[in-house]
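Render this sequence as a predicted structure.
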Amino acid sequence: MHTREEKMEAFGRLLDVLDRLRVECPWDRKQTNESLRPNTIEEVFELCDALMKDDRKNICKELGDVLMHVCFYALIGQETGDFDVADVCNKQADKLIFRHPHVYGKEKADSAEQVLQNWEQIKLKEKDGNRTVLSGVPSALPSLIKAYRIQDKARNVGFDWDKPVDVWAKVSEELDELKVELEKGDKQRSTEELGDFIFSVINAARLYHLNPDNALEHTNQKFIRRFNYVEEHSIRAGRPLSEMTLAEMDALWEEAKKKERETEKE
């Protein structure tokens, strides 16, 4: 691993490269906050993909891409005279120090749970902080992640179930209400009840310390692997999937599951 001095030198080198590209590269020269935003979103998702796969090599690579975007936005801020990368770093350091009084002050926090509760209360006291408990949840977050964050923030101020097991009655209630609306054929009400049901399942996951977004992505990847297996075998057999029976596809699906289990045991 590198020394602190080497890390600072590497960071400075990145800034130097960006400074030069901003002047000499036609593409970099024309970028704005608005034009970079879609690329930033893509880079963050690519980092998330590497993290989900625990792909250490690509985690390093994608972190570099995300860091480059952070520095690029800071460079644009410097050009407009609003802020530079030093302001970004100092503001973040100041915020972390202020939000960790159990480290930098006299407050006590004996558990991660207590730290999170203190964190939300501190954010409400900040000059430029959140005005309300839920105002800190970005409106642009994907719905599943947003639901989890909303519930988590409410929990930090005591709005939560007493025991995790209590949530299952609510999940069952929401599922029953969804079934009723589906039987009626009311699409609008069914959509609302589906949202309530999904929200309750996410709540259950949170109470049992499971990340629903990670869980769903693992299932997505599992489905892709198994479906690809079925499709590959259909191609080898010279038969399009559309010409195979459901029973034939199910047999290949079970075969894919069996091979996965055998691989896990190795």
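Summary. The radius of gyration is 25 Å. The chain has a mean pLDDT of 91.
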